[in-house]
Amino acid sequence: MIEAKAVQSTYFTDHCSMPFCKGCGHTHVLRKLNDALAKLNIPPSKVSLVTDIGCIGLADALFETPHTVHTTHGRSTAFATGIELADAVLSDSKLKTIVLIGDGGAMIGLLHLVNAALLNVDVTVLLCNNFLFGMTGGQHSAFSPLDFLTPTTPEGNIIPPVDMCRVMIDARAEFVARKLATDRDLTEVIQDAIQHPGFALVEIVELCTEHGTAKNELTGNALRNIIEQQGQEFGILCNTQSRGEFGVVYSNKYPRERAFTSPQKDDGIVPVYDSKLKQPVGIIIAGSAGERVQSAARKFCEAAIRCGIHCTQKNDNPVTQGSGFSLSEIILSPKEIYYTGIEHPDAIIIVSDDGLLELHEKGAFERLTSTTTIIMDAGLPKPHTQANIVEYNFRKEFGGSKAALKALELYVKQSGVFPLDAFLPPAD
Ligand code: SF4
Ligand SMILES: [Mg+2]
């Protein structure tokens, strides 16, 4: 961990040299970000820098900060949102989380930008807009101006560019600015964005000297003129504080003491019975959708928890939800469960032909040995298997909707995994 320095004049690593092409706008942006951090005198240990793919993604290696995360293309804002929420909810140290993203990544990860703005999470996004995908050969992006020449728009771009500042304002962002990388006051605007309590985005319009200037006339005031001809404005376009920063809102609603309270106490299930369970037990129950298979499994698991048993339940059903099979895999264990898969089930409970068919299709019966007990409805055809089969007329006696519950009740009686009293019948 790097200790805070009294006054930090540079945040770049020792012997840092810019890896970008000569004249690339990224160099301006990073120098101004460095100046902004120095003016704010934020300890490097309190800065979290998040980048993704693209030339600007080379930035994280240049900064002296213990928190740099290089992420997948366009996803840096999503990672930054997670970092910021974890910091707000789990830690007292207030990180300044800064995203450096290109125009290519910004459109790939548009949803993450919109979501971060809606949340008003305390993340500052510096969006480096050079109108193209620089690292991969200069292909056009959603920010390319009309008529812009790139290898993928050799006769000029015919799709109008996105106005990301407008999109962010529509997504309720409260600090939004657009600047040129060469603007003298860019440092101050970045400072303001970092200090803003909540989501802030600065779109920084800049040159890709390798690809942008090769085919397009971008000298003098060209960048400013292009943006203004698109009907877009420069400056701080929005700077308000009408709602709380998400980390504060969340922490107020869900105080940390509550987050760390035992889930056993939270869900109200208090162990009141003893169990003699010594080894983990794996049970699969299979039936038909709409016949309360998974809710019966849940009652069974709740009964187990009432006996102080650790328990997992994994449900499976077709996407149609209301038709076909319904299945639950349950593990009971006297110790914590770290793996929720069942390789060799101790019991399989089958209460309908849909459940039987699904287990056949999974090839479940071929793998069984005599250590598994199958409890199944007597009206179903018996599978070929080495497992022991016990039959009972669940459907005939109790109907389809109670078959799963009654089959689990029988299993509790026969196996003795926990006292039957803990397995309360549902209130009808
Ligand atoms: S390719 Fe373009 S964006 Fe990448 S470093 Fe060179 S000038 Fe900068
Ligand atoms: Mg770009």
Q: What brief labels describe this structure?
A:
single chain; 428 residues; alpha/beta; Rossmann fold; Pyruvate-ferredoxin Oxidoreductase, domain 3; 2 domains; 7-stranded mixed sheet; 6-stranded mixed sheet; 15 strands; 32% helix; disordered N terminus; binds iron/sulfur cluster; binds magnesium ion
Give a brief description.
This protein has 428 residues and is of the alpha/beta class. Helices cover 32% and strands 19% of the residues.
Describe the structure in your own words.
With 428 residues, this protein is of the alpha/beta class. The chain has two domains: 25-253, Rossmann fold (3-Layer(aba) Sandwich); 264-422, Pyruvate-ferredoxin Oxidoreductase, domain 3. The protein is built from 15 helices and 15 strands. The chain has helices at residues 25-40, 76-90, 103-108, 110-119, 164-170, 186-195, 212-215, 222-229, 246-253, 256-259, 263-266, 293-306, 353-361, 394-398, 400-415; strands at 47-51, 67-70, 96-102, 123-129, 132-133, 139-140, 175-180, 200-205, 235-239, 281-288, 310-316, 325-333, 347-350, 373-377, 388-392. The strands form three sheets. A seven-stranded mixed β-sheet has the order 2-1-3-4-8-7-9, sandwiched between helices. A six-stranded mixed β-sheet has the order 11-12-10-13-14-15. It has a two-stranded antiparallel ribbon with strand order 5-6. It starts with 24 loop residues before the first helix and ends in a 13-residue tail after the last helix. Mean pLDDT is 92; it is low at 1-6.
Helix-strand layout with pairing:
Elements: H1 25-40, E1 47-51, E2 67-70, H2 76-90, E3 96-102, H3 103-108, H4 110-119, E4 123-129, E5 132-133, E6 139-140, H5 164-170, E7 175-180, H6 186-195, E8 200-205, H7 212-215, H8 222-229, E9 235-239, H9 246-253, H10 256-259, H11 263-266, E10 281-288, H12 293-306, E11 310-316, E12 325-333, E13 347-350, H13 353-361, E14 373-377, E15 388-392, H14 394-398, H15 400-415
The site of magnesium ion has 8 residues, from helix 3 and strand 5.
